[in-house]
């Protein structure tokens, strides 16, 4: 990483963690040059990069200041689910809404993936070409479940970098995180069982429950701090919950991040009742602070946490490589994986294994996080400026989703179809609950390569939302 990129990254982290709040003046170029021992050119390049990302603003004859960010946008209200068991039927609506996501003419604010141009796909292709050249045919057998030994070793090393260790024998490579999550659900439940999920929750979790004929009970989830553990404890006293499917780090769609003490309390609560936790952690590497947040798995001492992740959201979306650190369920998942799909694709495993050995993944992640942090600021400014009064939005500390609460009277599904006609997609809140309760909410993806296109799309979306407010009859 170049020196100006390192400086820009350090400043961006200070903005993300609040050390440099909105409106704060950055040190002058002269001060930074002296303090950091770099040239004025390096400082200017760093400031220009931060300005391009929307994180800072230049004021004539005054200097550089932290951008206002989410000024004027309040946080959404915490969810209040019923606390009762529910059947799950969401797939038909999900398929209807997602049908248009492959349309290249759309600005994909409803997509679940960042812009593909943000990933080092050329370098991955080179790594795959070199890895497959003269490949020993016996290696294809080594890729059968639990997966490529070297790739599993590289993944295990990344756990160590987060300050805790796992046994490589509990690691199974899968076809993306969704297979890891589905296999985890299959080995911990039986048809008719009750599974606790967040409210709102990822629609993929609801689809998995629907496919396996499982029932859901939704747990209140705060847009900033995640699952309400004391309320979960009350639910567990009243209902026979067989498993939990939660996303403690940068939850989809909220973007919430559970504090470490809450994660620890969650793991302890479930361990006391011997309830497995299926932990979806696909966004953990996309943090905006100074350190990667630890997963709940870090506090697991009984092998009850099945930690699922992948490279799909951070490095290689089309390669479909994920994994699960499955604890006491590792052997059952490895066997189920063999019965269902044998192995993840050999070229993908070889390419990612070689890429991780070469280094460069963390440099890529730093650049990606800086882009996403700038886009978050741009998106929140656009929402504050262009959406109707009463709109709320969550400022996530990582990932690339915003959860937007629209004013009374605005139906998010109606807004979705209206925006589609104008070549902008969104993910209406109806998708994120078993009872479709979030009718005034949208999930927005700010993981675009072009922040100006993102702002243009949000301006249009805000205008359309305003038109729906105007159509709402007064009481």
UniProtKB/TrEMBL annotation:
InterPro entries in alphabetical order: Aminotransferase_I/II_large (IPR004839), HTH_trans_reg/aminotransferase (IPR051446), PyrdxlP-dep_Trfase (IPR015424), PyrdxlP-dep_Trfase_major (IPR015421), PyrdxlP-dep_Trfase_small (IPR015422), Tscrpt_reg_HTH_GntR (IPR000524), WH-like_DNA-bd_sf (IPR036388), WH_DNA-bd_sf (IPR036390)
Stored Pfam families: Aminotran_1_2, GntR
Source organism of this protein record: Alicycliphilus denitrificans (strain DSM 14773 / CIP 107495 / K601)
Protein family according to the UniProt entry: In the C-terminal section; belongs to the class-I pyridoxal-phosphate-dependent aminotransferase family.
The protein's Enzyme Commission number: 2.6.1.57
Alphabetical list of PANTHER family matching this protein: HTH-TYPE TRANSCRIPTIONAL REGULATORY PROTEIN GABR, TRANSCRIPTIONAL REGULATORY PROTEIN
Keywords: Aminotransferase, DNA-binding, Pyridoxal phosphate, Transcription, Transcription regulation, Transferase
Protein name as it appears in the record: Transcriptional regulator, GntR family with aminotransferase domain
């Amino acid at each position: 990483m170049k020196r100006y990129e390192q400086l820009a990254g350090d400043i961006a982290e200070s903005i993300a963690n609040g050390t440099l709040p909105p409106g704060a003046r950055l040190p002058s170029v002269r001060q930074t040059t002296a303090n950091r021992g770099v040239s004025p050119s390096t400082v200017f390049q760093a400031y220009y990069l931060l300005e391009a990302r929307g994180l800072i603003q230049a004021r004539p004859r005054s200097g550089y200041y932290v951008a206002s960010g989410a000024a004027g946008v309040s946080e959404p209200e915490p969810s209040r689910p019923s606390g009762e068991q529910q059947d799950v039927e969401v797939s038909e609506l999900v398929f209807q809404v997602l049908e248009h996501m492959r349309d290249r003419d759309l600005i994909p604010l409803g997509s679940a993936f960042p812009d593909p141009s943000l990933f080092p796909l050329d370098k991955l292709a080179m790594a795959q070409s070199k890895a497959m050249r003269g490949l020993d045919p016996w290696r294809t057998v080594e890729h059968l479940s639990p997966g490529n030994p070297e790739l599993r070793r590289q993944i295990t090393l990344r756990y160590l970098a987060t300050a805790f260790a796992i046994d490589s024998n509990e690691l199974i490579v899968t076809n993306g995180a969704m297979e890891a999550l589905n296999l985890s659900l299959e080995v911990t439940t039986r048809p008719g069982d009750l599974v606790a999920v967040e409210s709102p929750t990822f629609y993929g979790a609801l689809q998995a429950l629907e496919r396996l004929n499982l029932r859901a009970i939704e747990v209140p989830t705060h847009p900033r701090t995640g699952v309400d553990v004391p309320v979960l404890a009350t639910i567990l006293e009243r209902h026979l919950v067989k498993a939990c499917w939660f996303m403690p780090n940068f939850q989809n769609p909220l973007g919430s991040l559970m504090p470490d003490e809450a994660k620890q309390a969650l793991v302890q609560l479930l361990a006391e009742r011997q309830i497995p936790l299926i932990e979806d952690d696909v966004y953990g590497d996309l943090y905006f602070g100074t350190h990667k947040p630890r997963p709940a798995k870090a506090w697991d001492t009984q092998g009850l946490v099945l930690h699922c992740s992948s490279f799909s959201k951070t490095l290689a979306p089309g390669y479909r490589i994920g994994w699960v650190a499955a604890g006491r369920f590792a052997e059952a998942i490895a066997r189920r994986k063999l019965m269902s799909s044998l192995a993840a694709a050999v070229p993908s495993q070889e390419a990612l294994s070689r890429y991780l050995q070469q280094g460069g993944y963390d440099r890529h992640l730093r650049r990606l996080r800086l882009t996403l942090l700038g886009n978050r600021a741009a998106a929140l400014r656009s929402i504050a400026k262009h959406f109707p009064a009463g709109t709320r939005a969550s400022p996530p500390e990582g990932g690339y989703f915003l959860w937007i609460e629209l004013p009374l009277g605005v139906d998010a599904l109606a807004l979705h179809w209206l925006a589609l006609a104008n070549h902008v997609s969104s993910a209406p809140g109806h998708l994120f609950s078993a009872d479709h309760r979030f009718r005034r909410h949208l999930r927005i993806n700010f993981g675009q390569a072009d922040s100006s296109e993102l702002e243009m799309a949000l301006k249009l979306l805000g205008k359309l939302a305003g038109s729906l407010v105007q159509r709402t009859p007064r009481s």
